[in-house]
Specification:
The chain is an alpha/beta fold. The protein has a single domain, classed as Vaccinia Virus protein VP39 (Rossmann fold, 3-Layer(aba) Sandwich), CATH 3.40.50.150. Helix content is about 30%, strand content about 20%.
Length: about 300
């Protein structure tokens, strides 16, 4: 676990200003819309990440009135959030309408989540209207993390909580390495380093950001299983400079051969670097006229992760 008292430059993450690192949002949205029907059947990793992130709420005393499930997808976390916070209103937000059509079926008949199709980088929400933001495997689809965190801070109430997961640069390292031996195209979307995510939280004005990471590995009998899962998730390469058109059979064979060096005990691994983070919106909000607002509820905040301590 690491805390971030100040911002500092790091060099491991992709430069989102580079054409090969910029996400084509329209292409990503189309991929997720197509994958809506198959997503739940293959989202083993995403479901596990959501479960582990939800478990961290056991260490937080929180009574939110409004929860934003940012990048809700098909609503994997909606039922758990509603069970945990029975009096809260859950807003499921995603930029893929096909995903939201499934998310709106979550919950009970009398307590469906509100659904909003929008981009995390430009939230159509009023300032200070959200008590808790829960985001699972979403931030890697944002091109401007500073802008995204600024938006999340804007919509949070003073003292509101942000908890999230995202993917680090070692994600799908076997696939990335195999393709690198075949051609010079970026076949795997780039991912941000944990330190850069922490720095962006500090720049956005969040307080007490804490991040940690772990490696989770899925295994497959053959490479086709991995590729089918990625397509079923909608998690295909959506960078603007991605290779267009069909990949030739010779290059596919070469990539498959290169991937085989990673086979262990008869299975092919797919490694994911999972980053967990949380941070608090500042207790006080400074208005345009310089007025400072500090809520009475700001007294006595709690700890959102075992071993982390806040004063």
């Amino acid at each position: 676990m690491e805390t971030y008292p100040q911002a500092a430059p790091h060099s491991r993450s992709p430069d989102r200003n580079r054409p090969d690192a910029v996400i084509d949002k329209r292409a990503a949205r189309r991929a997720f819309d197509r994958a809506a029907a198959t997503y739940d059947g293959v989202a083993v990793l995403q479901r596990e990440m959501a479960t582990r992130l939800l478990e961290r709420l056991d260490y937080v005393r929180l009574s939110p009135k409004t929860i934003l499930d940012l990048g809700a997808g098909t609503g994997l976390a909606v039922d758990d959030l509603q069970r945990r916070y029975r009096s809260a209103r859950v807003l499921a937000l995603d930029f893929a309408l096909g995903m939201l059509r499934l998310a709106r079926r979550r919950g009970s008949l009398l307590r469906r989540p509100a659904c909003l199709c929008a981009d995390a980088e430009a939230l159509p929400l009023r300032e200070g209207g959200i008590d808790f933001i829960f985001s699972n495997a979403t931030l890697q689809w944002c091109n401007d993390l500073d802008r995204t965190f600024a938006e999340l801070r804007r919509v949070l109430v003073p003292g509101g909580l942000l908890m999230f997961t995202t993917f680090g640069p070692d994600t799908l390292r076997e696939l990335r390495t195999a393709w690198a031996q075949v051609d010079g195209h970026g076949h795997v979307s780039p991912f941000l380093d944990m330190h850069d995510v922490g720095d962006a939280l500090v720049r956005a004005g969040f307080e007490g950001p804490v991040l940690d990471a772990e490696y989770l590995t899925l295994t497959y009998a053959d490479l086709g299983g991995l590729m089918d899962d990625l397509r079923g998730l909608g998690a295909t390469n959506a960078t603007r400079e991605r290779a267009r058109g069909l990949t030739g059979k010779a290059r596919w064979r070469a990539m498959r051969s290169a991937y085989e060096v990673h086979r262990q005990e008869g299975r092919l691994p797919a490694t994911y670097e999972v980053v967990y983070g949380h941070a608090w919106a500042p207790m006080q909000r400074v208005a345009a006229d310089g007025a400072v607002t500090l809520p009475v509820s700001a007294i006595g905040r709690r700890v959102p992760h075992p071993g982390a301590t806040e004063n």
